[in-house]
Amino acid sequence: MAYVFGGRRGPAALLLAMALLAGCKPGAEGGYNRVSWRGDPKMPATAFPDPPPVVPGSTAAGGGAQKIVAKNLPSGVTQAMVDAGQTSFGTVCASCHGQNGTGSPAAPKLADNQWIHISGQFPEIVNIINVGVAQPKEHPAPMPPKGGGNFNDEQVRELAAYVYALSHQGGA
Predict the structure, then answer these.
(1) Can you list the domains of the chain with their CATH numbers?
(2) Residue 143: is it exposed, middle or buried by C-beta count within 10 angstroms (0-12/13-18/19+)?
């Protein structure tokens, strides 16, 4: 077998190639330091992105879902807040909690009065949306604060109003 290096053939070319590559050994003078592992790159800590825009009439965004009529809302919570919360719920929350809060393998059902981490009162719902659920008792992944969305305080209260209304449709 003939070795070709820079137009030269034969064992001399092979020896020349080996001599040149010898400097590439880890730790050799003029060589390189081997990188066997790199940590995760440091990403800048930025806020969560804004929720996607709501497309009117879209069932994925909650717009096509039937509006619920809230019953026995707590003081300071209005039907308008429930309606706005339903629209916002469809942008981020429904991906785990299901459309209309029906639940999924990723997150619990919210359209009933069975609560896992709280008793279901409005201030608790606001708080759990804000702080998330770091260690869920029955589901595989944690809920990030604000569900991973970039909701402002008013939107969080609207989401909580909708979830409260979902879970209290029977009257209580």
Answers:
(1) 79-167 (1.10.760.10)
(2) buried
